[in-house]
Amino acid sequence: MCEAQRERRGQTATSSASASSSDSGGRRYTAAEELAAQIVDCASLLTCMNAEEAVGSIRPLSPRSRAVTACVSWRTAAPAPGDVRSVDVRFSYAEAFTCLPKSGGDCAYESLMALLVANGCGVAAAA
């Protein structure tokens, strides 16, 4: 969850199985707002990400927006023309960050950063 970035902003997020938003200093954040903030935070460290496109792709998975999805893309370490990779990310306060089945299985991660690195974002290709 890019904890260093969150702490620097002086925010703390609470989550529980039934929460649909975090409460930080009296302000409640929706899952979409939280995912957008996580994408921007991670992009500040993983500069290969296309944060603007990822934030623009955030869509609710349920009518009440308790879970959202986004397509996060990045350039590979040794870019070739059109060498962009991506992963479909699902976020909800109840389940944390997961990869949608079509993009690598239904693995759960505590942080967006861990999910992205596990899927090759910011990792140099093996020689």
Main attributes of the structure:
alpha+beta, 4 helices, five-stranded antiparallel sheet, 127 residues
Short description:
This protein has 127 residues and is of the alpha+beta class. The protein has helices at residues 3-8, 31-45, 51-56, 112-118, and strands spanning 21-24, 27-30, 59-60, 67-75, 84-92, 96-99, 108-109.
Number of domains: 1
Element order: H for helix, E for strand: HEEHHEEEEEH
Going across the biggest sheet, name each strand in turn.
3-4-5-6-7
Give the averaged pLDDT, no decimals. Answer: 76
Structural class label: alpha+beta
| Approximate helicity band | 25-40%
Secondary structure layout plus pairing:
Layout lengths: L2 H6 L12 E4 L2 E4 H15 L5 H6 L2 E2 L6 E9 L8 E9 L3 E4 L8 E2 L2 H7 L9
Antiparallel strand pairs: 1-2, 3-4, 4-5, 5-6, 6-7
